[in-house]
Amino acid sequence: MTETDISKVLIEGDTATINGVKYKRVEEPTLYEALDEVFYGTNYVHREEICDVVERWLPDELEYDGEEYHLGWNDALRSIKEKLQ
Q1: C-alpha angle 70/63/23, rounded to 5°?
Q2: Which of 33, 36, 56, 57 could form a disulfide with 29 if both were Cys (CB 3.0 to 4.6 A apart)?
Q3: Is 72 left (phi over 0), alpha (psi -120 to 50) or beta?
Q4: Entry pTM
């Protein structure tokens, strides 16, 4: 890993500039926020619509690199997605 000269790091709010390159903090929405974004102000929601939002919100499967927990993680995600169908 290369070291970064901290004199070339500027942090302003949720943006950091490192060696002239700007990076912005990205936070994934909570499930509540994801549902609220789609259904805010509605009185009736179909089960299928909720399942679609939850499925899109779930993280992707991890690429297997020999670590055993990846297998368990991916199995759990597949199981959840199957039950949403």
Answers
A1: 110
A2: 33
A3: alpha
A4: 0.57
